[in-house]
Amino acid sequence: MNSAMRISYPSRGAVLGRAETEAVAEVIEGGGALTQGIWRDRFEEQFREYVGTRYATSVTSGTVALETALRLLELRPGDEVIVTPQTFQATVQPLLDLGVDVVFCDVEPDTLNLDPDALAGLISDRTAAVLLVHYGGLPARMSEITALARRHGALVVEDCAHALGARHQGRRPGSLADIGCFSFHGSKGITTLGEGGMVTFDRPEWAERLERVRSNDTDYEFLPYAGPDNAPSLLPWMRYADEVYRRTCTRVRRAGTNATMSEAAAAVGVVQLGRMAAATLRRRAVAERLDAVVGEFAGTRTHRAAAGDEHACHLYTFFLDDAARRESLIRGLDEAGVEVQLRYFPLHLVPEWRARGNGRGACPVAERSWFEAQVNLPCHPGLTDDDVDYLARTLRSCLARALAD
Ligand SMILES: *Cc1c(COP(=O)(O)O)cnc(C)c1O
Across all residues in the chain, what is the average pLDDT? Predict the structure, then answer.
């Protein structure tokens, strides 16, 4: 957050209050478990009911959710993974470690979501997975994308870090493909005390694997022990050793880790989930107000959900298709105390991906948008009515000035 600004991006994206404080007090004063207890179970149960998947497994961040999702895909070196360049680096960065071929697929100019037509030109039977984001909370065209992926045997991961509260063709993001990944970072729509994440999916075998991965176990396959049975006779309290001993490990996929969400965080998550619908409506009201201002000016485009879909309005985005005028608009807004952060710099142009053969021209729509057309403004439930009035008024006068000849 830039404190010199009158209207800035929030250090907190969520609304927190007395109920969250009380939830933490209940965990502390209740004397029960501080980890792996009832609050995590409750949060996960409510989350999977909300999203509409069979499973919701909590972890310690959105980044860890994406990392653990990638483990479930069992990618092998040389596999191809198709990704969107228009997202936060955490969607794509875990792939750096896996030795896979990452191919950036261009986005649609009006949504900044992965373009199914561009995907059709890239996907092949070499493609193991597609990673996409619902940019800013606007749902991607999932039916086309998942149909293409199915045809080529590829799995699809939805990064839903912006999309809690959105809806697509009657369903929630996180249930629209194979795996959904959510972030409860402090900047997101709901937060579990600053950090947290969730993985959503339907496959029971993944639930078992994720449970091990996040609990300091190994991601393995095993059979009952087939060797000579020379296990010592054990007392009942030593049965665990007996059970472990009588297994044969056939394959260790990877080591596990500890990604357990604490009880205090999960208890806050339960309260936050209850606040989410109202907070999303507030975001939408701010976005509609700004859309109305943008709509007064020719040469602009708004960032709208398809008919029947719902935008979570995590980011407020519009487009002014004239690089020089956009530049002048952003300068005007900045001088008037409205913070403008362009989200996100096209990832295929950052050094680590340029070093892997990517460059200018690979995703022309994403590049044109960031370098020439898109504008992102603050849009969050922490803005007061006065703030929104100021934002709308300032946007109107700055647009008028930028568009005057
Ligand atoms: C915030 C964010 C993440 C990472 O989530 P953390 O909880 O901060 O690790 C991943 N993808 C997108 C699109 C995000 O906005």
Answer: 95
The 300-302 sheet, strands edge to edge: 300-302, 316-320, 374-377
Cβ 136 vs Cβ 378: under 8 Å = no
Domain boundaries, the chain: 18-215+257-265, 222-252, 276-404
Kind of pairing between the strands at 80-83 and 127-133: parallel
Instruction: Give percent of the chain above pLDDT 90.
Output: 90
How many whole angstroms from 161 Cα to the centroid of ligand 1?
A: 6
Report the pLDDT averaged over residues 174-180: 98
- What is the dotted CATH code of the domain comprising 18-215+257-265? 3.40.640.10
In whole angstroms, give the CA distance from residue 40 to residue 265: 8
Question: Of 158, 188, 317, 345, which is best to mutate to test ligand 1, by the most ligand atoms within 8 angstroms of its C-beta?
Answer: 188
Q: In terms of CATH, what superfamily is 276-404?
A: Aspartate Aminotransferase, domain 1 (3.90.1150.10)
Examine the pLDDT at 154 and tell me if it is beyond 80.
yes
Q: Is 183 in the pocket of ligand 1 (CB under 6 A)?
A: yes
pLDDT computed for residue 52 by the predictor: 98
Q: Is 63 in the pocket of ligand 1 (CB under 6 A)?
A: yes
Of all atoms in ligand 1, which is nearest to the CA of residue 90? 10
Is pLDDT above 80 for 228?
no
